[in-house]
Each structure stands twice: as structure tokens, then as C-alpha cells.
Amino acid sequence: MPEAEGGPELLSLSEIARRVVTEGIEKRMSHQRVSQLSREDPAFPPVVTIGRSKAVDWRLAAPYFRQRVKRQGQRTDRMKPPQEGTSKGEEQP
What we know:
Elements: E1 10-12, H1 13-22, H2 31-40, E2 47-50, E3 53-57, H3 58-67
Antiparallel strand pairs: 1-3, 2-3
Helix pairs in contact: 1-2
């Protein structure tokens, strides 16, 4: 666990976005997108509030961003919910 290696490396959501790009994980990433992922993706690492800022442990965030499945440009608003026995929805007519 990261705590055993000297404690967490807490970074703001803006710094997380910058680090994702700097380390070549993504070509582009905004702090707004990181914030959206933190709110909507249950697999996102825990977010802590420090004053009025939100922070995430980089040691947990880096593997999350490296393993995250991207769906760029996919219109999820036009997809049916997955049926039993299928893994993906289908577009509605």
C-alpha cells in the first residue's frame, strides 16, 4: 500500500491533469475532466478535501489513468441498456 512507502502523494485535481499529460498517459487532460471522473466513475481513487481544494493520492491515480478504458466520441445517450448475455448496448433506430 502507498502509505507503507512514506505516505500518500496528494495532488490537486489540476496537478493530476497536468501529471497525466506530462507522464504521457494521455495527450490531453483538463482538470474539469478529472473532476468529472472523480464524481462519476466509481473506480476513481478516493478524493480528500483540503480546505476548498480536492486532492487525490497520485500513487492511486496513476494506475487508474493507465488502466482506464477510454470511449472517446461514443454517443452513450443513444445506446440501449445492455441486455442479459450481452456486454454492449446497441444504437436505437
